[in-house]
Design a protein that fits this description.
The protein is of the alpha+beta class. 41% of the residues lie in helices and 29% in strands. Strands 1, 2, 3, 4, 5, 6, 7, 8, 9, 10, 11 and 12 form a 12-stranded antiparallel β-sheet that branches. Strand 1 and strand 2 form a beta hairpin.
């Protein structure tokens, strides 16, 4: 794998420019470049002609992790030519991307809070971004070396299920709050050397496992990449991002522009629970982790998970777990902690 996104050709304003004359690889745009414990790291500023922001990537043992974070001031179209077999996992945290693939007659619209997992073999495609929009994307590529190391290519389900020619309309999916948490960890990591290598690899495998998990796959069968489903996942993200907030159905309805009846109905259809039940489960899961792995007092835990009154928290926890928070914590007092 070559530097700068596999030596792709970047086409800008109908002009093709090679990597060494592109919008990233000019020496004047290079912020840092180094290799430590086998992890190659490069970071660039965007050429001001095209946008304000950065592009950075890590590469080791057949694993490439690229992060683009920019506000474009001009349209940008990146032409990719891939001749190797690779597994590609991408997460568009913010923005919009138009994907033009050589074997598809219609373009694919990739929008904020969506992701895809594809197995690619000898493919040509364009990734186009519109000007005057912020773009934040994490793109992960796993080549033959990485796939062999983790026996990914030996898994025929993986290579068949996620082969681009088999995906058809199931190419793009919204991603869940667990995925968002992992992406946040990736973006905020500050490890060095071997620790960085282990951290990055473990998070990529975690994202891959989450994408392939049976429960996720079963839930993905419910997905329809329409406006309503995206709005429902926006609601789920809002709830999961701040458990201290007390959102009412009316508030969530106003934020997302969905009427309250449709919001309640569609949320339960997709997640199998009411909004109240889903929020309560998130709070109880967080509380269990804090009770088991921290020494925080119960009144403080109750506030962290969204209960201003610790008595109400205790009652809710006991109803869910058949144990008071104190008894739950005590049950782990003499057990070894492995997780």
């Amino acid at each position: 794998m070559k530097d700068n996104a596999d030596g792709n050709i970047y086409r800008i304003d109908s002009k093709e420019v090679t990597a060494d004359k592109g919008f990233l690889d000019k020496e004047t745009n290079l912020i840092r470049s180094f290799e430590h414990d086998g992890v190659h790291t490069k970071e660039f500023n965007f050429d001001p002609k095209y946008g304000n922001g950065t592009y950075q990537y890590y590469y080791f043992d057949g694993l490439y992790i690229g992060v683009i974070d920019v506000h474009l001031i001009d349209d940008l179209c990146i032409k990719g030519r891939n001749k190797e077999d690779i597994l590609e996992l991408s997460f568009l945290i913010e923005g919009e991307q138009i994907i033009k693939l050589s074997d598809r007659t219609t373009d694919v619209i990739f929008e904020s809070q969506e992701s895809y997992l594809v197995y690619l073999q000898d493919i040509v495609g364009d990734f186009c971004y519109h000007k005057n929009k912020p773009i934040k994307e994490i793109r992960i590529r796993m080549d033959e070396k990485f796939m062999k190391k983790h026996k990914l290519k030996e898994n025929t389900y993986l290579t068949n299920r996620y082969a681009l020619q088999h995906l058809q309309k199931e190419f793009i999916k919204p991603y869940c709050s667990k995925t968002q948490d992992i992406l946040t960890e990736l973006l905020s990591e500050n490890y060095n050397g071997l620790s960085k290598r282990l951290f990055l690899e473990s998070k990529v495998l975690e994202l891959l496992a989450l994408k392939m998990d049976n429960a996720t796959t079963r839930r993905e069968e419910l997905f329809r990449t329409d406006h309503m489903v995206k709005k429902i996942y926006e609601v789920e993200s809002i709830i999961a991002s701040d458990l201290t907030a007390q959102f009412s159905i009316i508030q969530l309805s106003r934020i997302t522009g969905i009427n309250d009846f449709a919001l309640k109905k569609e949320f339960k259809r997709i997640f199998g629970k009411t909004i109240f039940e889903y929020t309560t489960d998130l709070r109880m899961d967080k509380a269990k982790k804090l009770l088991k792995h921290s020494t925080k007092p119960i009144y403080e835990i109750s506030e962290i998970v969204g209960y201003k009154n610790s008595t109400h928290f205790t009652a809710a926890f006991k109803k869910k777990m058949n144990l008071t928070p104190k008894a739950y914590r005590k049950s782990f007092a003499h057990q070894p902690q492995f997780d």
